[in-house]
Amino acid sequence: AIQMTQSPSSLSASVGDRATITCRASQAIGNDLAWYQQKPGRAPTLLIYGASTSQSGVTPRFSGSGSGTDFTLTISGLQPEDFATYYCLQHYSYPYTFGPGTKLEIK
Amino acid sequence: QVHLVESGGGVVQPGGSLRLSCAASGFTFKYYPMHWVRQAPGKGLEWLAVMSSDGSHTNYADSVKGRFTVSRDTSTDTLFLQMNSLRIDDTAMYYCARVSSAIDYWGQGTLVTVSS
Fold it and tell me: What is the tens place of the pLDDT at every residue in A13-29?
């Protein structure tokens, strides 16, 4: 199975800052990488798919990049509603695998 | 609008069984692969299983292979997860999810607690 790692595991930032989260796959996955946001007690929501394509309705503050094994989620101009946990998912091959998550907290 | 509603969760003893359901609406269910994903309390997301749009193919995580079975009924637009030989570490919120370009819509989840 493809292993996914994320860094950092937690991140403290202020409103207005730029936050960067990275995800690395244990083998090349092309651009079959999605990013999700999850708030406490809620189901995850899709932010980015195909490594860099924004899901409809998602604010342009969120952007994704990368291909192969290394991927990045960037959140520009952090807003209070952005403080949540973020997960990457590889959907290149089964079993699909999620990264362990990055908790973005308010400084 | 896409709507997925899970049900069937509850408290079960180790070794027991449970069948989860996921009622789909707002899209043409028979055209989409459907997945199950779970999240243990305070932990990350774990992909569990997928059934292809026509029901002919399935795939499972090693952690549930041989114990869990996914199925679907296109006459009622419902996805199922039959869970047997449940263990304490199967305690989690269970989500069904639809796949388009990626897993794009999730239900609200149903909680399964395995405890003696």
Answer: 999 999 999 999 999 99
